[in-house]
Specification:
Ricin B lectin domain-containing protein; Trefoil (Acidic Fibroblast Growth Factor, subunit A); Ricin_B_lectin; mainly beta; Ricin_B-like_lectins; two-stranded antiparallel sheet
């Protein structure tokens, strides 16, 4: 079953706090921030084959292969066809690295602005949605466009 993503650009939004993935200014780090109403390019992403790329700089969402451990941070880098830049979806809208499928994206417990890799569990901070640009979401209406265990 193919992954269903909205056409064009989208936000990657955390269900727990409603924040979205964002490229930090002048760096390659990825963090969580409140969703911008003006659809800033540093919060927009698109699917390119098996990669999730930033509209801001066309770099791919990446985990450091030498740091594939819990608590590891995410960043963006030039697409090198690395399995550490490929992402899959798991049950209940979790986004996991293709190479290290036991590690999924999760928000930080204290500040809710850090994105890190954690072991897959029942934590609601691990739930994500692809939200099309221009779509407003509320706690009652979440767009779940991630299928179960399919490669993006």
């Amino acid at each position: 079953m193919a992954l269903q993503t909205p056409p064009g650009c989208f936000f990657v939004q955390n269900r727990f706090n409603g924040h979205v993935l964002q490229i930090e200014s002048e760096t390659s780090n990825v963090s969580l921030r409140p969703k911008s109403d003006n659809a800033s390019g540093d919060q927009l992403w698109y699917k390119d084959g098996n990669f999730i790329k930033s509209k801001h700089n066309n770099l791919a969402l990446t985990m450091n292969p030498g740091m594939a451990v819990t608590g590891a941070k995410l960043y963006v880098a030039c697409c090198q066809w690395s399995p550490y830049q490929k992402w899959i979806t798991k049950q209940k809208c979790r986004i996991a690295n293709h190479m290290e499928q036991c590690l999924v994206l999760q928000t930080d417990d204290s500040s809710n602005v850090r994105v890190k890799l954690e072991h897959w569990n029942d934590d609601p901070k691990q739930l994500w949605d692809f939200v099309p640009v221009g779509k407003k979401t509320t706690s009652e209406e979440r767009i779940s466009l991630l299928s179960t265990t399919t490669e993006i």
